[in-house]
Amino acid sequence: MENIIFLILRRMRQPLLTLLAVYAVAVLGLTLIPGRDADGGTWHMSIFHAFYFVSYMATTIGFGEIPYAFTDAQRLWVALSLYAAVVAWIYAFGTILALVQDKTFQEAIAENRFARRIRSMREPFHLVCGYGETGSTLVQTLTRRGQHAVVIDINEARTSIIQLQDLREFVPALHGDAAITRHLQEAGLQHPSCVGVVALTDDNLVNLKIAITSKLLNPKVKVICRADSHDVEANMASFGTDHIVDPFDTFAAHLAVAFQAPCLYLLQRWLTGREGSALCEPVYPPRDKHWIVCGYGRFGKAICARLKGEGIEVVVVEAHPESTGQPPQGLVVGRGTEADTLLEARIEEAAGLVAGTDDDANNLSIVMTARELNNGLFVVVRQNQHDNRDIIAAVDADMVMHPSAIIADKIRVLLATPMLYEFMSLALYEDEDWACELASRVSALVREEVPQVREWALDDDCAGALCEYLEQGGQFLLSDLLRNPWKRERPLKAIVLLVRRRNDRLLLPEPGLPLKSGDCLLICGNQTAFTRMQWSVSHRHTLDYIKTGEDRPQGWLWKKLTQQ
Predict the structure, then answer these.
(1) What is the SS3 assignment for 167-183?
(2) What is the C-alpha to C-alpha distance for residues 564 and 560, in angstroms, rounded to an integer?
């Protein structure tokens, strides 16, 4: 508001001074020019009468001459003052119109309106800095789950398009630079309802500034940042950033899991997949022959490190090794789009190919050329632009690395179900048979679509009736929770993946585990199962029916009718 007032005063200073001067001269002239009263005597208009007359004369309203008819000298002065006042008002209105149309003024008004809207928010929300492909995907997912988000982006076109998107929740958006502390504060960084800050801009230094500012001004807020530089990651970590997401290292880690435990990788993709998407098929990356990695940038280096960690020989194809750096061994200079380059890299003998350049057209060309020379390749393609999704899918690669999708999916899980990453960390210590059996159970639950995953706390807010039942000495088992509240002999289509009880973590707990107040459960299943579980723990009558199998009447009237 201070900026708006300053702009108005600065732009309107000259017009207001002009109006003030015209009014002052007009009033002064009327008080000095003598007139004649009703008796023909000389009189001088008072300052009050002169100001009153000029006030309606200057606006061309015209209530007549007061208190007596004017002399010719007075009328001449009034005519001159009238034209001068009209010109002054036209000048003032023109300045006002120019001010209203001024982009700086409009941005200040929008910024003030945005700040007032944020101050009035009472629901928990996440502050998303950057509304590119990653940010838009994340906001759509958050709003689909009923969570609130606030957006800052330096590109006005992106913040304007939010209002046209089909989002389930209203998303306030500010056109501003997230690296400026004032914009972060206006967007609710220090608001009591702000539960997380997500830095998703395409500039590592801006993300670093956001992380530093957030931790200094609001140490309790969860901060998640995107970074693709190890130096920046280390700097972010030194300021206590909660989660740092590197899409290249993340995908390389996924590839390593696919090598070591294909079923666990499949299970991970199912549980972290977007609701409504189809179940993907398992992948089995070969390791019996060498791999060819085209592009030795940040992505290529992360892949090479993982492949060498698996004991696989790697041949790198890079057109500009002087700028990307020399790999330790196996370098072929070229883009990979030419058959000669791929033949030099022994494409006929290769087991896998990674098309990992930062150009989608080159990646597609690499894949098509490579398949003409070796149709049995295991293909990994990097997708850089979201708009190229269809043509990348037409290549039918075994694995696709889309940085924006990887970041959005990981942050979505971190914000919505952080226990899922605890589950995956514990699952890494299990054998492949365990993962395959669990994948079969999940597939039997949901058939064709990925399951819904929920993190559910057994507290008074989410399970009031169950907590009261347990406090009264009742026992409620995990198997009871998974009973159908309408027909208790039928189990619900859900699996409890993890139970967090204080400092303990129970992976795939047994059905006979007694539940306790304060337990936090990670459950996967379908929507019907979650709806009926919520009903079970929220109604005491349903709890009694699940435990005893007796549908006892509730209320005085039904009890009387039952007794009769």
Answers:
(1) CCCCCCEEECCCCCHHH
(2) 6
Using DSSP, state whether 225 is helix, strand or coil: strand
Q: Which residues contact 44 (CB under 8 A, 6 or more apart)?
A: 31, 32, 34, 35
pLDDT, tens only, 312-354: 999 999 999 988 888 887 899 999 999 999 999 999 999 999 9
Residue 555's pLDDT is what? 57
Cβ-Cβ contacts under 8 Å for 502 (sequence gap 6 or more): 518
**Rg (Cα) of the chain, in Å, rounded?**
36
**Burial (CB count within 10 angstroms: exposed 0-12, middle 13-18, buried 19+), residue 64:** exposed
Q: Measure the CA–CA gap between 126 and 242, rounded to whole angstroms.
A: 14
Beta bridge partners of 178: none
Amino acid letter, residue 140: Q
Q: Is 431 exposed, middle or buried (0-12, 13-18, 19+ CB in 10 A)?
A: exposed
494 phi, psi to nearest 5 deg? -155, 155
Q: Is 325 exposed, middle or buried (0-12, 13-18, 19+ CB in 10 A)?
A: exposed
517 three-class SS = coil
What is the per-residue pLDDT across 508-557, written as a single tens digit (0 to 9) for each? 999 999 999 999 999 999 889 999 999 998 888 888 888 887 766 665 56
Beta-carbon count within 10 A of 49 CB: 15
Model confidence at 78, pLDDT cuts 50, 70, 90, reads very high
d(CA 536, CA 530): 10
Coil/strand/helix, residue 429: coil
> What's the confidence (pLDDT) of residue 564?
55
- Helix 403-416 to helix 133-144 angle (10° resolution) is 30
Distance between CA 241 and CA 222 in Å, rounded? 8
Q: Which residues contact 459 (CB under 8 A, 6 or more apart)?
A: 467, 517, 518
- The one-character DSSP state at 512 is T
pLDDT of residue 64: 84
- Distance between CA 313 and CA 291 in Å, rounded? 6
Residue-wise DSSP of 362-424 = HHHHHHHHHHHH-TT-EEEEE---GGGHHHHHHHT-SEEE-HHHHHHHHHHHHHH-THHHHHH
**SS3 (DSSP) at 241:** coil
Task: Report the first-to-last Cα separation within the chain, whole angstroms.
Answer: 72
List, for residues 235-270, the tens digit of each pLDDT value. 999 988 999 999 999 999 999 999 999 999 999 999
Whose tokens are 């100001």? That residue is 51
Task: Please name the residue that has the structure tokens 């009890």.
Answer: 559
- Rounded to an integer, what distance in angstroms lies between the CA atom of residue 125 and that of residue 279? 30
Strands 314-318 and 331-333: parallel
Each residue's pLDDT tens digit, 283-299: 999 999 999 999 999 99
Could you tell me the domains of the chain?
2-101 (1.10.287.70), 121-245 (3.40.50.720), 249-416 (3.40.50.720), 451-548 (3.30.70.1450)
Q: How far is residue 32's CA from residue 29's CA, in Å, rounded to a whole number?
A: 5
